[in-house]
Amino acid sequence: MNELQMGAVETKFAEIIWRNEPISSSQLAALSLESLGWKKSTTYTVLKRLCDKGIFRNEKGRVTSLISEQEFYSLQSERFVEENFGGSLPKFLAAFTNGKKLTAEEVNHLRKLVSQYEEE
């Protein structure tokens, strides 16, 4: 799972792909210039790196994801909880909510998530 890590700039680039896929590599280069100020060579270098990590595929100039944005962030969250809280979601939630007041809507949403999990 370590390979699936991205830095902040790579993440911004990945989000361009996820929002626009499937996208041609030339369109991606144009969007990267517009959004990130990147030259075409920088776009292709970073794209190759993310393809090598197994996050995207560039086939015949058509870029698509191998992992959805939601799947990627889910894996990152799991890794964070595992590395920082010994894999304990309750410990993470306790630390995350310490000193914060949850809204009624947030509490209801968490209850629904727990309820859905219990039903599975």
Task: Tell me what the structure shows.
The two termini are 25 Å apart. The protein is 67% helix and 8% strand. It folds into 2 domains: 2-69, Winged helix-like DNA-binding domain superfamily/Winged helix DNA-binding domain (Arc Repressor Mutant, subunit A), CATH 1.10.10; 88-120, no CATH class. The protein has helices spanning 8-20, 25-36, 40-52, 69-85, 89-97, 104-119; strands spanning 23-24, 56-59, 62-65. The chain is mainly alpha-helical and 120 residues long. A hairpin with a 2-residue loop joins β2 and β3. It contains 6 helices and 3 strands, in the order αβααββααα. α1 packs across α2 (25-36) and α2 packs across α3 (40-52).
Concise summary:
With 120 residues, the chain is mostly helical. Helices cover 67% and strands 8% of the residues. The chain has two domains: 2-69, Arc Repressor Mutant, subunit A (Orthogonal Bundle), CATH 1.10.10.10; 88-120, no CATH class.
List keywords for this structure.
mainly alpha; Arc Repressor Mutant, subunit A; 6 helices; 3 strands; 67% helix; elongated
Could you give the topology of this structure?
Layout: H1 8-20, E1 23-24, H2 25-36, H3 40-52, E2 56-59, E3 62-65, H4 69-85, H5 89-97, H6 104-119
Helix pairs in contact: 1-2, 2-3
The CATH architecture of the largest domain is Orthogonal Bundle
Strand order of the largest sheet: 1-3-2
Structural class by sheet pairing and helices: mainly alpha
What is the CATH topology descriptor of the largest domain? Arc Repressor Mutant, subunit A
- SSE order, one letter for each helix or strand: HEHHEEHHH
